[in-house]
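Troubleshooting log. The previous structure file for this entry was overwritten by mistake, so regenerating from the original sequence record. Sequence copied from the archived sheet and checked twice against the printout by T.R.
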Amino acid sequence: MYLDKILGTRTKINAIYILLKDPARAYIEKELAKEADTSVSEINRQLPDLVAAGLVSIERVGKTKRYQINARHFLYPPLRDLFKDLNDVYMEIADKITEYIIQEHPNAIQAVLLTGSVLGKGARSDLVHGPSDIDLLFVVNEKAGVIKNHLLEYINHSIVPEYGIVCYPLVLTSDEYMEYLKGNKFIIGIHANAKVLYGKKPRGFGKLVPD
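Regenerated output below.
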């Protein structure tokens, strides 16, 4: 089917999402692969379907390829609206989860960081032990295990039945966060790029400073 070629894989969906965010920009293949959380080879293997469908244009500059969304394509308006609406839903879910856990543990939550998906990148690491459509990191000062269990219970009983969207939270104590920040590329990336939904990012001997 036609839509299978357009939306048939995660790589295509991520690439379309990135291209739609800045329709005036032509992305070098390496840039697009990084933003879409995939490899250059996968971008060049899968995007020809989008080019053939006319949704994406390609420009070759030497050995480099540049990809850009075709804003005149008939699917451009509905896809733009779809991704915008989905992004709004993801933010709504992230806010609900954040509000719930702050109410349950008002003195234990130091920071809630939105690390992926809504931002356009998936947060993936051996620290994350489950599939997730929305990536949230909770920095806590106590009871990390208890807080994680409460989060999973709320997500499984309230979020998944209502939205059908999965979120597997990463919960770290401030000491764990600071230790990982010394050399874990995953946490370093989160610290540099995450959006703060609550509190402040820990920095420097456990102190909290503005983002």
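Residues 118-126, 205-211 have pLDDT under 50 and may be disordered. Archived copy saved in two places this time.
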